[in-house]
Predict the structure.
Amino acid sequence: MTVDSGSKGVELSLSRQSSIILAAKVFGFVLSFFLPVLVVRLMPQDEVGIYRQVFLIVNTAINILPLGMGMSAYYFLSREPELRNPTVLNILAFLFVLGGLLFASLLAYPDILNILFKHEEMGRLSPLIATVIWLWLVGSLLEIVILANREVWLASFVIVGIHLSKAASMILAVFLWPTPEGFLYAAAAQGTIQLAALLYYLNDRFPGFYKNFDFTFFRRHLAYAIPLGLAGILWVFQTDLHNYFVGYRFTPAEFAIYAYGCFQLPLVNLMIESVTAVLIPRISELQMLGDKREIIALSGRSMNKLALVFLPFYAFLFVTAEPFIVTLFSRDYIASVPIFLINLTLIPFAIWINDPVVRAFPELGRFLLYLRIALLVVMTATLVVCINSFGLSDMILVVVLVALTEKAVLTFAVLRKLEANRSDIMLLKRPALTALASGIAGAITYCLLYLLYTPILSLLSTQLLESLPWLSAKLADSLANGLVLAAAGLLFFCTYLVGIYWFGLVDSSAINREHPILKAIGNYWPRFRA
């Protein structure tokens, strides 16, 4: 069964909106990318660990406390326009009250944080941590409400503005006051600006919203949001819990090594979010039409496209993990490499996305909830029992195994629901060929890197120190590793392109040879035009 042209138009519109938001988030990522690079070079390792622990608490609180109320704006602003003002008032009041309760709790019992991380610095910083959580929690509504109000272009500018203000305030703190306390003051200043922008926007787009409290609707609002929020909390616990065990068991300096070993690659998540945003409405429509075969085909096509990016990305980072970590974080964090390698294992499995199908079938959502509860219990029990015997690599290994178990079990449930059959195994052909091309490119890159890494690194470091005598040995080492990484990237990329062309993964007939970039290359390289 096919969908009419009107539906295709909606899909294109969603794709365009998704692209706009993705572009804004990528730009924001670029702005904030340099912060950890500066932090590790301008702060002692134990101070870096405390800084990471402080913002672990902040981010965990911001992810948990909304309890689904913030995200409920997407539902009520589009479905019940007559309740627009009560909706934003409910969310704003809910976030303000919960943030205030946490603020009061941390002021009254600051030693709670000392118990979590076994050092007194966290208790001393409790008032500042509580202030930042309160400001950021309420201010987080700004991006959500603009998107829920379907102002995509404004949302893109706001997303960039939020990232720019956070990056600017934090980078300023790096140079003026490079301590966890300095970062908290910078975060509080940025949060105040964002909160002011939120109040201005609400007053402009929802005039008089603060006069429209409806207790009956508030109860219905909570009944809708909190069950979804509780499911989200399970995911936060599953992704953040291991960090608290590491913070309790190890020193702040060791926590810093672990944190940068678990370094998240935001571009991976941004691509998944972008593809998911396009798939959700399309798969929901196909589910209503009962077209399970097309859902499988659509999921397979998205898997093929993500595989072309994620599989080579994984292969490249796997063989260049050491120069990658040293380039970004200096050789002081070389112990992060084994943790980084284990954490990378999740990337290849991200090519198959279950979320749109789970959202389309409510029974799968309930199954996922029970699955996450079971896995959270298993992970917590394992970490509690083994906390004194596990090293840093063991901690991340438990997290990765739990995540892969969820992926495997949920994928099996999704495929059963879609009534997949043996013929669908052919959907793996292109990803398998992509994996082969990535593996070949990775093997060639590794062989050359293994043979030449040490002598080339020594030569580059010496040349940099002689040419730029003001450079420190640590910075010269990072720059030399960066040059090695760039050369390895060029070799890998060229080899990979040959591989995917050789295996027929690139449809040359679909290439737009009139594209300005391709025409420009053709002007300088006539053979390319052929």
Remarks:
- The mean pLDDT is 84.
- The two ends are 40 Å apart (CA to CA).
- Residues 43-230 form one domain.
- Residues 522 and 528 are 5 Å apart (CA to CA).
